[in-house]
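Q: Protein A?
A:
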Amino acid sequence: METMKAWQCRSSPDPVEKRLFISPAGIPMPTITDDQVLVETYSAALNPIEHKILELGLAKKLIFRSPVTPGMDVCGRVARIGNKVDSFRVGDMVYGACDGVFGAGSLAQFVPISKHSIALVPEGLEPDDMASIAVVGMTTYQGLKPHAKAGSKVFINGGSGGTGTVSIQIAKALGCHVTTSCSTANIELCRSLGADEVLDYKSGDLIKQLQSKGRVFDMVLDNVGSPANLYKVSHTFLVPNGNFVQVGGGMSLSDFRQLGANMIVPGFLGGGKMKYTFVTAKANAACFEQLAAWMKEGKMRAVLDSTFQFDEAPKAFARLKTGRARGKVVVRVRQA
């Protein structure tokens, strides 16, 4: 039986970085279905949702088997193809999104992925960079594209993290005027990515700063989920037919209550008055092809906070959990 190395997370109350382990005997090499490819992982990138899910407590035992292999972002080389795969060949460099804790994660030497969830990597682009844009790019693109067009004024809440740095660039590639928020230390980073205006939430109340501009924004893309009342008061800075789109937030009970209220409590009962959408992104090849094209054209660039070697995956999660990452945290599973 073929085996491979993979990081796995066992079930326990400890922080995720203390529960990760590599079995000395390895784990079985994944098999693939007819419409999947087996990718040899070069680079994997981490997302906050992963450690938040893995630290849910008792709830995670009802959702996941144990142990699980984390990692949703992947870039690597096609090692095998299924019988119904004709868009990729063995040896192709690809990137995209895998199932992570919901199935097979990219913190492993090999990962099976649907042919619909990957795209070719343009020649000359780096695995670390491509892995870093996959899930956040897919999510924010699907959040922005239906509502934003050339000339739209967009407010992106949280511009300096892994999601925000990609959101700014996608909005600019779509032709939008972008206002974003961040701390004082990250203002220049956001400007360098194309933000037309940056609001420093450290220097004053963010909602008051938005309200002072009047009802000028066509949409809000919320990567953070705070301030908690941002959606509730969004009618004071969104145009009358504007859209509030949320792609990020916390996993606490209060966060879930807030999400539920945003979705179902009408304005006349104290809820928000604007159209509200919570993005549940679905991986598709066309989305990844568009992101890859923008990377090749120079309209997007990767923003990496830090890179770790494969045996340093627990340190990578520890860095991600600080909440201070400027851009994405990447794990190099294999040297290209």
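Q: Protein B?
A:
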Amino acid sequence: MRNTLTAPIINRFIRRASVCAEAFNPDEDDEDKEPLVTRPKTDEQRQRLQEACRDILLFKNLEPEEMSQVLDAMFEKFCTIGEHIIDQDDDGDNFYVIERGTFDIFMRVDGTEKMVGCYDNKGSFGELALMYNTPRAATITATSPGALWCLDRLTFRRIIVKNNAKKRRLYEAFIETLPLLTSLELSERMKVVDVLSSKAYSDGQQIIAQGDLADCFYIVESGQVRITMKRSRTKKDQEEEEVDIATCSRGQHFGELALVTNKSRAASAYAVGSVKCLVMDVQAFERLLGPCMDIMKRNIANYEEQLVALFGSGTDIEEQNA
């Protein structure tokens, strides 16, 4: 069991000495030897923090324990109008999540400082200097009173950077084994890795539902997924029965046909035992998997053959595709 370190409250916002030569290799770091930082919070503070972090992309792939450690380590900072939160060319000290407030982004180009963007009561900033060990790329100033949640550089790199490196290696190796993606260049497969998220499902849990609009594409990471379709028992019978039409296991994919044809789901999918899937949303699917469309369209013909064998008809797959 790891030790837990309660951080002192003083000196939170004092800028650190130069750290740009301080290399960080996630493979060589042994986080188990370092105590975890815990900054006490009230229930009300933790609730506000959880809400502020809900849509932060960098946190999406964290395990529950890792997310809890991040929340434990974060601390609150209030800011005033005109305050500089970070300054271009400074060393990175914290990663910032906006709870409330508005902020302008300035970059100095050819000696002239220009406003290049703004934040309006949501978002995050400051990760690039921490991830790549480089000076701050921009200046960010508060244009209203606001509240930020800050994560120190050590915790950020020990949890966020290390987690991302592990996930990337895991997904890269897995993606390389998928026949569907063999037509992609290496750089294209890496882009696929970057947009995947992992979701866990319990035994019997429905993953997609027949008739629903399609919003995601799924690759089975572990476990098995049962694919079913509802069909009337007889032509006169209004009652429908759910018939198994396929089973997907590790490395197989489902949910793509509705995305290819822009139609609703023609089948349902259920977890068999504990299941983990890699999930890609429809926007990323359309942007990244264009070179795979021929393979996916051939799958439509395969499903057609399955339906004919099961039901003596393939008309449903022509009208709507899973």
